[in-house]
Amino acid sequence: MKLCMIGTGYVGLVSGACFSDLGNDVICVDKDLNKIQNLKNGIIPIYEPGLEELVTKNYKNNRLNFSTNLNDSISKSDIIFICVGTPTKKNGNDADLSQVYNVAKEISKSIKKFKIIITKSTVPVTTGDEIEKIISIKVSKNFFSVVSNPEFLREGEAIRDFYKPDRIIIGTSHKKTNNILKNLYTPLTTRGAKYINTSRRAAELIKYASNAFLATKITFINEMANLCEKININIEDISIGIGLDKRIGSRFLRAGPAYGGSCFPKDTKAVIATANKFKTNLTVIKSVVESNENRSSLMLKRVFDILKNKIKNKNICFLGVTFKANTDDMRDSSSLSMIPVLSKKGAKINYFDPTGEKLEFKKYKNVVYSNNIKEAIKNSDLIIIHTEWNDFKNINFKKDVMNKKFSIFDMRNIYSVNKMKYQKIKYFSIGN
Ligand SMILES: NC(=O)c1ccc[n+]([C@@H]2O[C@H](COP(=O)([O-])OP(=O)(O)OC[C@H]3O[C@@H](n4cnc5c(N)ncnc54)[C@H](O)[C@@H]3O)[C@@H](O)[C@H]2O)c1
Predict the structure, then answer these.
(1) Using a 6 Å cutoff on CB, does residue 29 contact ligand 1?
(2) Which residues 6+ apart lie within 8 Å of 245 measured at CB?
(3) What's the whole-number mean pLDDT along residues 237-252?
């Protein structure tokens, strides 16, 4: 089939590359000329395991192409995926849908024969209705069908998630469209993925309900960890003890810092805003958002406690600054709220991240990027394990840290409390 992905970011590029690998002709479009030129030269704009090989292979085979020409790419395609960003609006909790609606206007200029227009971007309920309205100003409704097909891939596991999704949600009541999409997804459904056809509005809400539920699980275990810290219980025991109950499930029950990333923070807020519009009070999700927003301050308080409130001139090392491992995505990472506060208090911060130096910290004079773990931890008074990269799981702290009085704050509970005790390292973790 001939596909066009509008927006060549984490979602558009990964899905575009995977769809082309399944034998479709795909054009990935972006308004960012630099990004498209780099892609044509084999330079991948994001860190995602396995993506470079997939892009290179399919670009060489001419099944995957890149373009900045939206109208030409739409004309050449039968199925158009909208994969642009839907960040939180500057004021309030609503999703900013300007990128989606701008694309809808552009699409309406290029429809000459029947097209399926799919929203893969995460959009509030009724956005599909709005897209349909925008396009129908210029185009007869017989010439297009607007579908919601929310994306559930996780950064760091995106390719695996594309090929082995738990479910494919297709929100449409249009029979012909549903049959075409069933065909498109046949290579995945034959491998066991469940194909669920719902109303468009239901598909839109399924995405938000999923993310809000997962955010709730994380927040729940984080709050349990707070309690464990007060009563000398290990949170890992609680996670295992409740996770073995099949009704609960063990995933997303690892206590840690505030959840971050490009989805949970904005999607929990957006679903609250949507519910407000429909005069419904989502009190559970509101509490989750509040609890998570407080969590970075709570983590900072632990840092202050460990350093006995003496932050000035202390050498603090962050191992990992992205919101999770195996991605370079910094959006809403808790390091973005922790590092500036510590820097302002006069700490000397060194950080190392396997995905390299971050623009976000360049403006701070006392925040320095180190090229490797040894360099980063060398002079530390406190090492904060912020992100759960495998690279951080086997460090010989005793050998590599020069300052013999250093402490470790392990925000991911990577190391064993007993082993640290045995090595006489001052070790602090979450929920312990
Ligand atoms: N990142 C994830 O893990 C993930 C997972 C599931 C769903 N989503 C959702 O998918 C959507 C996209 O997320 P993302 O992380 O891929 O975003 P992103 O910011 O990485 O990419 C969006 C791209 O769209 C491009 N763009 C914007 N307007 C355009 C236009 N008019 N024409 C062409 N290109 C345009 C931007 O230049 C950018 O490259 C969001 O709604 C997000 O919530 C993201």
Answers:
(1) yes
(2) none
(3) 97
